[in-house]
Every structure is written in C-alpha cells, then in structure tokens.
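wait is this the right file?? whatever heres the structure
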C-alpha cells in the first residue's frame, strides 16, 4: 500500500535530481515539517505569498519579518535552508543542501488534486521527516502496533490515491516555466490569536 507513495517519491526525486523526496498532504505542512525539523526560531521571507505561511509561523512561535522580494516559482526563507517552491516544478531543479517544498493542485504545475512534497539531500532529515509526516510511524513496522517507540508525528501524509494520480501525471509532465501569481501584500493584514 505505502509502496505507491514511495514509488511517486522516487519518480519525483529522479525528475528533480533530488537525492530524496517526501510526499505530504500539502505544501504548508511540508514547510511546517521542515521548520520543525530544523528548529527554526526566526526567518525573513516575501510578503507576497499564501496566507498559510505566516499562519504557520504564528502556530510554531517563529519570529519573522518580511522582505521586499518579489518572486516567480519559488522563494527562500532566509537564515534557513528551506524554500517555498510551490509554483515551480522542473527537471533538475533541486538545489544542493536545500529543503524545497512543492505544492500540487489546482493552478500548480502538477495537479493530482492536492498534495505537497519536500526535496532534500540530508539522509538524516529524510528519515526523521518521513516519520514525522505519518504520525511518527516507521513504515518498516507492519502492523504499526508492533512499533514500540514513536517520534512526535503529525497526520500530514498523502493518500494512496493522491500518490497514484501524481505518479501518472508526473509520467507525462513536461517542465514549464515557473508560475507567477499576484499574491496580496501580507504586510497589510493582521493575524490575531
């Protein structure tokens, strides 16, 4: 059952030239898992992004400020190795040493309905984040009740159906130019608890 997710992850890693890929249920959760893994305390990023990004910073207690950066396809979270690559999917796009977070869905380069992924080359981060995205489970244990020790995890895994559809669409996908979207300036909003 999980080999369908693993199959898509392998295809995505090969397509992007990333050593590893971890599929998640959405890009926001991919970003969150990277921020949690790297224990990010503060960062700076563009204010022209989706609302879930500053919401995630609030949820995690991460101090952040905005840059004046405009972007197409992807942008960095400064002082980290994390990139929001939600609007980019190209062959050989992987940046060595980075954790690039992808988004799948409507108006994104790849549309299997929804989903996200993390491209990375850090084998330790790969092993830990794979477990974090699936309730702390080590998928070598079947049934899961045989596992005795769990990492703190989150229910951020994709469905088998999303992985199958993503695999089929990636098989015929042709790289396109990174997508530009006119996001509102998030400096104009307030987020209250």
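ok assuming it is, sequence goes like this
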């Amino acid at each position: 059952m999980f080999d369908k997710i693993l199959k898509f992850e392998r295809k995505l890693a090969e397509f992007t030239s990333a050593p590893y890929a971890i599929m998640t249920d959405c890009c926001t959760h991919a970003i969150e898992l990277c921020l949690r893994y790297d224990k990010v305390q503060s960062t700076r990023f563009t204010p022209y992004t989706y609302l879930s990004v500053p919401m995630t910073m609030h949820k995690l207690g991460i101090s952040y400020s905005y840059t004046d950066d405009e972007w197409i396809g992807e942008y960095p979270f400064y002082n980290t190795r994390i990139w929001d690559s939600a609007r980019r999917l190209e062959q050989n796009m992987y940046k060595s040493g980075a954790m690039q977070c992808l988004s799948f869905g409507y108006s994104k380069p790849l549309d299997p309905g929804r989903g996200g992924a993390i491209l990375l080359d850090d084998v330790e981060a790969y092993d830990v984040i794979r477990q974090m995205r699936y309730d702390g489970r080590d998928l070598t244990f079947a049934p899961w009740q045989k596992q005795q020790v769990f990492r703190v995890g989150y229910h951020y895994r994709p469905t088998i159906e999303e992985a199958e559809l993503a695999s089929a669409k990636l098989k015929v996908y042709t790289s396109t130019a990174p997508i530009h979207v006119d996001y509102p300036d998030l400096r104009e909003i307030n987020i209250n608890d």
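The mean pLDDT is 94. so i think its the right one actually
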